[in-house]
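Pair request: fold both.
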Amino acid sequence: MTDTAVLPLAGFAVGITAARRADELGALLVRKGATVRYGPAIRIVPLADDTELYAATKRLLSGPIDVVVATTGIGFRGWIEAAEGWGLGDELLTRLGRTAVLTRGPKAKGAVRAAGLSEVYSPRSESNAEVLQHLLESGVEGQRIAVQLHGEPLPYFVDSLRSAGAEVIEVPVYRWVGPADPGPLDRLLDAVLEGAIDAMPFTSAPAAASTLAVAKRTGRLAALVNAMTQRVLVACVGPICAGPLAALGIPVVQPERARIGALARTVSQALEERSPRIRAAGRQIELRGQAALVDGQLCEVAPAPMAVLRALATEPGRVVSRRELTSALPSGGEEHAVETAIGRLRTSLGEGRMVQTVVKRGYRLAVEREYT
């Protein structure tokens, strides 16, 4: 059995591209034993300096407003604080106090109430889709509606209201642009392609889209999509976040609730479930991202030997040719690279008998049986 002292994500490396709440997500994963590498794919334009938010606020104040939709607590609070900095805080709160305020979830509801306002509707599902349905069923023709965005556009939401006859003011709270320093993201992408990253959780659609854009601009998009499809676990906090990835056919796992804690739990569970468990040469082996658990002891394994081990474990006991193993190496290479990786793998596992050489054919795991 696995040593209980070994944390569930020990041996796994996770890449995080988020800007806001990256530290929170990273801390949750580190607590479970993961190694975390950061490569911010976006940065947030400070609200007080955001001319688009200022223009949207002035437009809202230029005339009567019928409905305001608050989608996030932090976004709504930031909007009010920015308005106060521009000397528009009192005027904005007065206008909102005469308006039907709808909130997407409890955090937005809390921010609205903290501002001295009250909501007229908040869906139990905490979904934008249910807010939209409520508005359309209530009738919006001729109404002036402000929608507080939360980092990414909501085209379906906004377009549906406009098609139903409403004038819609998009309030772009927390507008996201590319990272000021692309170096960390560039290095994170290299690590993904080298096989040194096992999971990529995304917390926003802009971060996912920016990651893909950087890969495309640097000629690595096809390789990145292949890695995310074949090897790297990709997780998203919700369906909107998953959009840019799903459009390229990348499989994505999502938590039932769009929360950072739920996302961390989903990543942990998915990584544990996809870890092969094998018995070879009398030893129990569990393959983790950058390590192997041998009889409950964590053994760190470098990317090339780990790639070889994974190839051998795909069909435990089958003889895998040197040519097949060469293609499994992160950077390819000649057959002698496979021999080097096999030697390093045996050393890392601490038991050379687990990987057998089959003369003139290749290598195999000395499998007795698989275990769960």
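--- second member of the pair ---
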Amino acid sequence: MAEVHVTVWDDQVEDGAGTPALFVHNIFTWGDDPEYGFAGQRPLAADRRLLLMDRRGYGGSPDTARGDFEVDAGDVVALLGDGAHLVGHGNGGVAALLAAARRPDLVRSLALIQPSAFTAAADRPAVADLLHRVREGVPATPDDLTPGDFLRASTEGIGLPVPEPTPRRLRAVGTSMRERPIWEAEIPLEAIRSADVPVLVLCGTWEDAPTAYREHVGVPLMEVAESLTDSLGARLVRVPGYYPHTQRPAQVNAALRVFWDSPA
């Protein structure tokens, strides 16, 4: 197995204080990216070691011909060590779910930030509509579309600011363009539920998001969050905005601290 890059933050006064936490990022980003990644969670390193994994093709990890959530899940399992809290955002949330289903004994808790687990909520109306659109109505990405074009279309095209197209950002976007479609993921929720893994779901409220972004992405993600809360017996925390851990890092960090410190 190719080794993936991991950023380690460890500000603990005493060695061994607190169970470590492993973070798995979404598309277009990498572990410690201040734009879309987990830079805002840096203060949590005061209590425990934080491991920020770069999925293959992102950040400091090796290139990959095609990203795959199943491969990412294997990398996550390999990084759990003797046990860790697990946090996943977006597509990284799907990898975290799959890893937790494979080795629930190593997952001390599972926190999901707007996970792209659409197939686990396919019975919800907006999710069903999204799955129909992406499976039936969306053409394949043109071969001549550059990562820069894709980045602009995915941000400016729906009213969001365009991040600086640095080489690292464009590499991440290129990997995202080639990833295995997330709607192919089959997530064995029963393995997590039967193992009694504590689960926290964090989701934005989306009222201030650009209209197209809210309708086509936000509403389905909110339905996924509600569905996973029901099916996994999770705690649901709603956070103002549409990118919880970057727009409201203090609120997300407080929720994670309470969750990690609560009895199982």
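Observation on the second member. The mean pLDDT is 94.
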